[in-house]
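Supplementary Methods S3. Input chains for the assembly prediction are listed below.
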Amino acid sequence: MRTIVTRFAFLALALMLVISACSPAAPAATEPPAASTAPAEPYVFGLLMVGPYNDHGYSQAHYEAGKYVEEKIGAKMVYIDKVNTADRPGTTPDQLAGDLVAQGAKLVIFSSDDMKDAATAFAKANPNIYVIMGSGDQVWKEAPNYEAIPNLSDIMGRMEYGKMIAGCAAALTTQTGQIGYLGPLINDETRRLAASAYLGAKHCWVAEGKNPADLKFKVTWVGFWFNIPGFTADPTQIVDDFFNSGYDVVMSGIDTTEAMVEAGKFAAEGKTVWAVPYDYEGACEVSPKICLGVPYFNWKPMYLEAITAASQGTFTSSFQWRGPDWSDLNNPDTTSVGFLKGEGLSAENSTKIDAFIADLAGGLNLWTGPIKLQDGSVYLADGVVATDPQVWFLPQLLEGMEGQSAAE
Amino acid sequence: MKHTTLNRIGFQLFALLLAFGIASLVLLAVGASPVQIYKDMFGSLGTKGKIADVLVSWAPLLLATAGLLITFAAGLWNIGVEGQITFGAIGTTLVLRLLQNSAMNAGFIIALSIFAGMLAGALWAALAGALKTFGGVNEIFGGLGLNFVATALTIYLVFGPWKRPGTGSMSGTQPFPEQFNLPLFEGLRLSPWALVVAVVGIVFVYFLLQGTYFGLRLKAVGKNFRAAYLLGIPTWQYMMFSFLLCGALSGAAGALQVTAVYHRLIPSISSGYGYLGLMVAMLVNYQAIAAIPVAFFFAALNIGSIQLPIVHKLDSSFSGVLQGLLVLFILLAEGARQRLTPKA
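Predicted structure tokens for the full assembly:
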């Protein structure tokens, strides 16, 4: 018996030896020494993403912007993705931000709305680290929960425009007059974006000489920014339900690409359906033929500005809510939100979309009264233009939209 | 006797080697250097803040383990521990919500809420216990079912009656005002109170199992239910009581998750500590004191594994692989030891 044991022990030892011998050399040892011409130390910034860095959606848009900043100013990005309590149980975003700081980050981007409380806590606990809160409003003087946090800036693109254009494309394309909107969780941001999509859809629907009452626009919420099995509603199921019940265009408001994937499948089966993805410039690639176009965030210019300022010591706390570059919606260096047309958009509708974009660029504001809330109450009287806080903090969906305004 | 201990240690070291060996092979298969990975994982834990972060997860994990040691002693596989943690968190949140606007002292309210968490955990465990004792439903299936129910209930509360105003999000309820958070060590995320609760919990279980007739009888029930019954031990009552105690300790873990870590209710409030606790309890084999370092090691693996995505672009679930392998091989080694060692 004893010999068996001894044999086992030797085997294990041998295994360990083989393993350590096979181990590639430590990466640290293979890193070339910094060239003498390069700056001594690249500025390190951290990025926390709520979903996978390659989600073809919201998180990837941030990731690519980080890569852009790396290239532009020779900075170095350290990141961690899937920052949510289901994917990384037991962690908090501020704890993970601390891990990025341990990797040398002097500025940390909290990129999702979910991380707002953690970003505030982290910024206060680490006054020497700069914090960017993507989509946040803590340091906006107009916000009800305004706080002065000198090392924190809020950054957001005016996606309302992107959603209006997308909504217009959906309304121009739908043959059944039914547009489904795949909503993430319900909050100020998602309400105003769904409402903007509806305003765009209604505008273009009416411009075609149709009755706004004939346009069906239904929002179904998932419960989070993306599918977490067991915790959220299943977006795939929701999209299928839309397509199976007469909706022929589904607009995505979530971080991931289920709407595209399912629309692609339905189209392959010969059904006439389209989808509008969201967030990420390359999202149409998932199912190009049925893609009407994608409204996307371009975080590049705002990140570049803030991180450059931080690296030069000139960072100042601010709230930034920037619109598109109307002269070129898809200029990566200048626009904060863009719209990239998809193959599914017909040539005729493409021309109409161009005209609509030109109108918006010329000052057309769809957030102008009369606008009623879902409960029928007047939100903007006739001719009244919404203030920024009125758009940002939209309390309900709008009249004419189906779907929950708040959780039940 | 001494020979047996040495023998056991030898086998366990061997199992440890095997577990790390196989885990290393997994790393090699994805093109990573195991040496570098272990160095980064454990090397990252060298700061005060990191040790504190490990202790933040150690406390609830240890409490869940402590509870499980009791049910293990009674021969029960209390898989429902996840749900008991979750239901504990719900109980704590309920009391905090009810009392946060009252004139009572905040410290008293926190204490009351933790107690409520324990009570809620015990209640949830009692359900699994009742299903087992009176319904003949195996505690594994009953517990698993109740875990799903507890999660569903949390999701309902977070999206429904306890939602943040104007919001419907999985990210949780409105955080409680600061005075309802357990106080933290200066500059750290760790609350001394969480440590106190955890240590009291494990010491309680240690004495219960090692130094009381109750513990002895409980083990008798666990080792041989029928013999214990014939010897006059009220077996079902003992089983039921072990569920209650486990539930209370798990509930305390949930209470800490709310009062010391998240300061609100989130759908994944249990953070998987129940399942992890099952592994720790299996590893330590009834030795409550051994749970202290083993739970620490498992918590350290979890916290250290965050380095994998940051530094190596690898998934941090590798810590789960390593934890699973450890349990598997330690159990296998124990089995092998019993077979290969000649009986005295």
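The radius of gyration of chain A is 24 Å. Chain A touches chain B through 58 residues (CB under 8 Å).
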